[in-house]
Automatic annotation (TrEMBL), chains A, B:
The keyword Manganese does not apply. It holds the Pfam family ADH_N_2. The keyword Oxidoreductase applies. Residues 31-341 form the Enoyl reductase (ER) domain. It comes from the Eukaryota. CDD domains: double_bond_reductase_like (cd08295). Keywords: Oxidoreductase. This is Enoyl reductase (ER) domain-containing protein. One of its GO terms (molecular function) is oxidoreductase activity, acting on the CH-CH group of donors, NAD or NADP as acceptor.
Length: 346, 346
């Protein structure tokens, strides 16, 4: 039976950006009308995209820089990212119509996925919201897990500081650190987020960095004993302030530099000498280097969630139309928790 | 028999400094006339100082900063550092008159050492110049050894870059890296030092950083494949340039920041984002954290030297009078190799 053509709205990158993205860097296009089928012989699947993930790393893909760990988007083309999707048609024996999958998908209503080895099937019997597969149980969650356990070398009783602490990654790092027996302080950019950290996410303390004139002094106040572990999501002056407050043999896991608009923006440091005198380790990481830990992560974090030991805060925007604002909002801290776009209902 | 009083010239710090030291920050004083004896019941030794070591870390002790890993000197008092000395009198059964020792001693002709547990006896039957016990076999040599093997995680074939490469530490790092099967490039600040690196110290390549307008471009030229290990003795813009040229999973061992005049001088970085995208580890260290490796170091490096596998370049100045200029000269790169002051002949 011949299938009907349907409209397929898409989010397109207009052109490469310099600096922080604005909504008009992205555009909703109506795209070509497509058939909802996976062509015979393609071995692919045709999916309906349900949830799309907004992640800070995507800014890097909007820039004309080809020498990094991930290639840039193509101007005038649909962008891609992590998503949760439902199989609508399949030419691949491993995927059946009606199944849910997660992996890299285009920012559009329907996608033909040919690299099916990059999709992971979601078992929907686990009482976990589908959208969590791009957050708590997706790349951000795994980033938190791998960064904390594999990079930070945590010990019970360690003093742990997390910037952008209510974000997709930070909120899980803090909860894992608490489960590990650490003292945990987070910073965020609104009083609402600070309350969330203290009241819902179980941080010992939290503060609004925008209300602090002197970040070094603020950290000294929250960490009179100094910091053992700094989980850095922002870079720049916060990293510098943390260096001033690290303890001997402190560890800094560098996960993100959301304070930096461009890869080569100048950042000024006054406290680099502490790296020697306090024997600090600063270690950048990508979750993909620890991919062999992924099954263990899924098991552990699913378990914690089901046992009520951790929670997860999402910022859900509705409709593909909301996607440009949602993605751009990450860089001014508009999101409260993990930013997701609901493209369609399940 | 009552011993005579003898003159005891000393080097005194006049007052705390800001910025780079100048010769007049230090002063030769004639000191009190002393008896060349270790008082009964003191358990100490009276030593004649033969060689004094000039080390960059000493600048930190000339500043009024009390929160670091080592306390500052006291103004108007004799300064101290590593030295090689001969026992002239002893109230300690472990040390005999005529023996040679190395450890912390005052910058003066004769010193009464009461903390004898910090002295190490030198076996003089090993064909190694006495002065090497503050260089190749002393703190700088051990810094090179511990930094290279314990911090850099070297592998055969690694591309290794060393700044201040002809200095007390760098020259040994480079030779150890060559013995380890690495490709080794060093930088220094004169063409004479560059020749030394290439012709005497066995580096694969070397360059004069002062002749390079663009350090990033210079490193890209010497490391078209990128840098696996950067052994950093200088910090600042050279560290930033190295970050731009590191390979994925590169390691930076931060040993010194001789480019920095003050602990909190601003340093500007453009390439910090590479720490994430290339998963770079930046690790500060002090040799003292690895002290359990010291016996092994002595055995290994003594062996390499006796087998002719390594050499060591010293810059020897004669007389305590030369001490202020010798120490200060470190910070403008006047020394060629390890800077030592010969206070007296053996």
């Amino acid at each position: 039976m011949e299938k009907d053509l349907v409209e397929n709205k898409q989010i397109v990158l207009k052109s490469y950006i310099n600096g922080s993205p604005v909504e008009t860097d992205l555009e909703l296009k109506h795209g070509n009308r497509i058939k909802l089928e996976a062509p015979k012989g393609s071995n692919g699947v045709l999916v309906k995209n349900l949830y799309l993930s907004c992640d800070p790393y995507m800014r890097g893909r909007m820039q004309d820089f080809h020498a990094s760990y991930i290639r840039p988007f193509r101007p005038a083309s649909v962008i891609e990212g992590f998503g949760v999707s439902k199989v609508v048609d399949s030419d691949n024996p491993n995927f059946k119509i009606g199944e849910f999958v997660t992996g890299i998908t285009n920012w559009e209503e329907y996608s033909l996925v040919l690299k099916t080895d990059q999709l992971r099937k979601i078992q929907q019997d686990d009482g976990i919201p589908l959208s969590y597969h791009v957050g708590l149980l997706g790349m951000p969650g795994f980033t938190a897990y791998a960064g904390f356990y594999e990079v930070c070398a945590p010990k019970k009783g360690d003093y742990v500081y997390i910037s952008a602490a209510s974000g997709a990654v930070g909120q899980l790092v803090g909860q894992l650190a608490k489960l590990h027996g650490c003292y945990v302080v987070g910073s965020a950019g609104t009083s609402h987020k600070v309350q969330l950290l203290k009241n819902k996410l179980g941080f010992d303390e939290a503060f609004n960095y925008k209300e602090e004139l002197d970040l070094e002094a603020a950290l000294a106040r929250y960490f009179p004993q100094g910091i053992d572990i700094y989980f850095d999501n922002v870079g720049g002056s916060m990293l510098d302030a943390a260096l001033a407050n690290m303890r001997v043999h402190g560890r800094v896991a560098v996960c993100g530099m959301v304070s930096q608009n461009n890869r080569t923006d100048k950042q000024s440091f006054r406290n680099m000498f502490g790296v020697i005198s306090k024997r600090i380790t600063i270690k950048g990481f990508l979750q993909s280097d620890f991919i062999e830990k992924y099954p263990r992560f899924l098991e552990d974090v699913t378990g914690y969630y089901k046992q009520g030991k951790i929670v997860y805060v999402e910022n859900m925007n509705d409709g593909l139309e909301s996607a440009p604002a949602a993605l751009v909002g990450l860089f001014s801290g508009k999101n409260v928790g993990k930013q997701v776009i609901r493209v369609a209902s399940e």
